[in-house]
């Protein structure tokens, strides 16, 4: 049993496990989690923060901690330094846990242009404590209590997606989600190199038959199970 008052030891590597089927994984989500999320969305909440708890536990139900998934609230997507602009003094740059070279926090002044999506779900790669942490970004979820500022929200989500592309260079199967009350927009990538762009690839009501939001997220969890 691991406890916080003991010297930490590196756990054994994640054991290989046959991934569950989509239906089997969805069946393991506790009914109260689904009930809480649906009734909270339907209640037309006054504050976006009221959605954070229900969505957070929903993500945890789909991406289990025993498979080393972690959903980070307000995760910082730091600006990536262009290789041509990197300082010769390597102490002025740092390598982020999710990938990418960034301006070191040791450099005087405030770091600018950080992006803070509501939830960044990652696969945790455990390493010895003397090495930097390593997280693999597998999806991003942004929440809005309604779609009153849809154009602004879409522009914000596109910025998140392009920053993730700079940091982690995901393939074109990567998906991000903008949840505006009961409307979900799914984001992906197209093109390569200078033609690389983020775009909306699907849109649906979260409550329509087909359970699309849950199945989309579950498919991501299954893909990164091992």
Question: Care to give the gist of this entry?
Answer:
The protein is an alpha+beta fold and 226 residues long.
Give the oligomeric state: single chain
Strand order of the largest sheet: 1-4-5-6-7-8
Total domains: 1
What is the CATH third-level topology name?
tt1808, chain A
In the predicted model, the low-confidence regions spanning at least 5 consecutive residues are: 92-97
Known CATH architecture:
Alpha-Beta Complex
Q: Major β-sheet, in short?
A: 6 strands, mixed
Fraction in beta strands? 15-25%
Number of H- or I-type helical stretches: 5
In whole angstroms, the N-to-C terminal distance is 23 Å
Give helix and strand order, one letter per element, not per position: HHHEEEEEHEEEH
Give the helix/strand class.
alpha+beta
* Helix residue percentage: 25-40%
Number of strands: 8
**Highest-level CATH class:** Alpha Beta
Radius of gyration: 19 Å
Shape: globular
- The pLDDT mean sits at 88
Region (Disordered): 1-22, 87-110
What is the element layout, followed by pairings?
Layout: H1 22-27, H2 31-42, H3 52-62, E1 69-73, E2 93-95, E3 101-103, E4 119-125, E5 134-144, H4 150-168, E6 175-180, E7 183-190, E8 197-205, H5 212-223
Parallel strand pairs: 5-6
Antiparallel strand pairs: 1-4, 2-3, 4-5, 6-7, 7-8
């Amino acid at each position: 049993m691991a406890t916080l008052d003991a010297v930490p030891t590196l756990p054994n590597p994640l054991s290989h496990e046959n991934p569950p089927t989509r239906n089997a994984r969805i069946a393991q989500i506790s009914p109260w989690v689904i009930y809480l999320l649906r009734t909270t969305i339907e209640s037309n909440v006054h504050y976006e923060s009221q959605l954070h708890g229900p969505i957070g536990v929903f993500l945890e139900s789909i991406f289990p901690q025993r498979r080393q998934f972690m959903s980070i609230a307000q995760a910082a997507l730091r600006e990536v330094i262009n290789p041509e602009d990197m300082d010769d003094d390597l102490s002025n740059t740092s390598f982020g846990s999710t990938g990418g070279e960034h301006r070191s926090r040791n450099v005087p002044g405030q770091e600018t242009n950080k992006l803070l999506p509501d939830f960044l779900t990652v696969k945790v790669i455990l390493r010895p404590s003397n090495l930097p942490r390593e997280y693999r970004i597998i999806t991003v979820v942004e929440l809005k209590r309604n779609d009153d500022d849809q154009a602004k929200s879409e522009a914000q989500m596109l910025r998140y997606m392009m920053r993730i592309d700079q940091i982690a260079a995901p393939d074109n199967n990567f998906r991000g989600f903008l949840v505006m009350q009961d409307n979900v927009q799914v984001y992906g990538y197209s093109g390569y190199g200078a033609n690389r762009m983020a775009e909306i690839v699907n849109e649906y009501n979260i409550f329509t038959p087909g359970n699309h939001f849950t199945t989309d997220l579950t498919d991501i969890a299954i893909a990164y199970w091992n």
